[in-house]
Amino acid sequence: MNTGDGSAEPTGDEVYDVAVIGAGAAGLSAALLLGRARRRVVVIDAGEPRNAPATHMHGFLSRDGLPPATLLELGQAEIARYGVDVIRARVEHIEPGYEVRLEGGPVIRARRLLVATGLRDELPDLPGVRERWGKDLLHCPYCHAYEVRDQPLAVLGTHPGAVHQALLLRQWSEDVVLVTHTLELSPLEREQLDAFGVNIVEGRAVRLVVDDDRLRGVELTDGRVIPRTAVFVFPRPASRDDLLALLGCSKDDQGWVVTDRTGRTSVPGVWAVGNVVDPRAQVIAAAGMGSTAAFAITTDLLHEDVEHATARHCATADLT
Q1: Where are the transmembrane segments (predicted)?
Q2: Residue 8 lies in a domain
Q3: Residues 100 and 52 reside in one and the same domain
Q4: Are residues 40 and 117 in the same domain?
Q5: Is 117 in the same domain as 245?
């Protein structure tokens, strides 16, 4: 049942139609549609959104520039109107059936599962990186580059994708450098960067230089400081797919859980949406994935309900 703050306490004596694990854009979007379909839904969330360090999100039609936390607050208020329960807890284990065990002991029973637990960004181990993450150490040009347009920008070479990132950033600034760091550039990549006006800075970064709570540049091992006002990095995305792995969901060659176009996994009754299966999905795309999965889950539940109702009907008819 819902409590005054919008959260719920598990009673242990009811079966939900759907348990949604993760209350980001994907999970909330699915819960909204499922609630409107008059399904019994619970959302379980540990309160660790990927974009928590960001002050604003962009590219979401009608919500451009909104703080990420505000979007989640609005979403939770909306799903509450349709009787969706929200439980603040971490999922400890899932048993076939599906029984979702929360830390501390309570068990939630549900007919279907939708996992939207997102991912975590594995950042380079450099002083200043975690402190500046989401401020002036950035990762997505489409999400953040407009706000630092026409400024001196750097890309840190920690991943092969850094080359594309540096080339792409030329759309927002004429002053872009690629600090090679740990990345070995091919002759073709060097030619492309040079031709497109991206300066290559040879050397390994040792720290981000910060003064008065502002990024001032990137310091290299030889003592040089490359003056920059924002740095982009290509973090390694690590899916929070432990629960999906526990259930035995199939993965692709890259280690990501495989789903169909609706988010259905290889395990019957289990869907996965958002960054937990697609590291490239922005907030608006993750929300769309949640809605798509909700349609499919509603149809799946309907088929089961009709099948059971037909069996009961036939059994009753046989008795008369």
Answers
A1: 15-34
A2: no
A3: yes
A4: yes
A5: yes
Judged by average pLDDT, the poorest of 25-29, 61-65, 189-193, 246-250 is 61-65
Query: What's the mean per-residue pLDDT of the chain?
Result: 92
What tens digit of pLDDT does each residue of 69-126 get?
A: 999 999 999 999 999 999 999 999 998 789 999 998 789 999 999 999 999 999 999 9
> Which residue bears the tokens 């953040």?
144
User: Could you tell me the residue range of the domain that residue 281 belongs to?
Assistant: 15-121+237-319
139 and 76 in a common domain: no
Both 170 and 193 in one domain: the answer is yes
68-80 and 25-36 are packed helices; what angle lies between their axes, rounded to 10 degrees?
20
CATH code of residue 155:
3.50.50.60
Whole-model pTM: value is: 0.90
Q: Which of 234, 256, 276 is the last residue of a domain?
A: 234
Report CA torsion sign: 44, 49, 52, 56. Answer: negative
Please give the single-letter amino acid code of residue 48.
Answer: E
Q: What are phi and psi of 231, to 5 degrees?
A: -125, 135
User: Is-contact 86 17, C-beta < 8 A?
Assistant: no
Count of Cβ atoms closer than 10 Å to residue 311 Cβ: 10
Domain count, the chain: 2
pLDDT value for 2: 45
Q: Are residues 110 and 249 in the same domain?
A: yes
Residues 6 or more apart from 198 whose CB is under 8 A from it? 166, 167, 169, 170, 176, 177, 178
